[in-house]
Specification:
With 120 residues, this protein is an all-alpha fold. Helix content is 78%, strand content 0%. The radius of gyration is 14 Å and the shape is elongated.
């Protein structure tokens, strides 16, 4: 099964690129207790999205695929939360961080749609 978003892009590649952007953003966070703590959280969830989408693409069954995509959805939702926290706490407020927040919201919507379609 080849995973694609509504725009025809490969969701595996899109979530991979998102993970790379998250890593780069975390490297720009302030080296404070809050920066380290939030950075650790967002890097785990932000890179976990793509890892779970990758696993879903190699699923052994439809149920396994849905399960892995549901985990990816949870990771995307968690990433969105941490990005909002980073922005709202003013740890890192710039265009790239705001763009990552927007992308995380889009990934939540895309992955949710993939799950709903797979369950139909």
């Amino acid at each position: 099964m080849r995973l694609r978003s509504s725009k025809g892009e490969n969701i595996r590649e899109r979530t991979f690129r998102f993970g790379v952007r998250i890593v780069k953003m975390v490297n720009r966070l302030p080296r404070t207790t809050a920066g380290f703590a939030l950075g650790n959280q967002v890097i785990r969830s932000g890179t976990g999205i793509g890892a779970n989408v990758e696993e879903a693409d190699a699923a052994e069954s439809k149920n396994d695929f849905i399960h892995k995509m549901k985990i990816a959805l949870k990771e995307a939702q968690e990433t969105r939360y941490w990005l909002r926290t980073i922005i709202e706490s003013e740890l890192l407020v710039d265009e790239e961080t705001k763009a990552l927040l927007k992308e995380s919201d889009e990934l939540v919507r895309i992955i949710h749609t993939i799950i709903v379609t797979a369950q139909a």
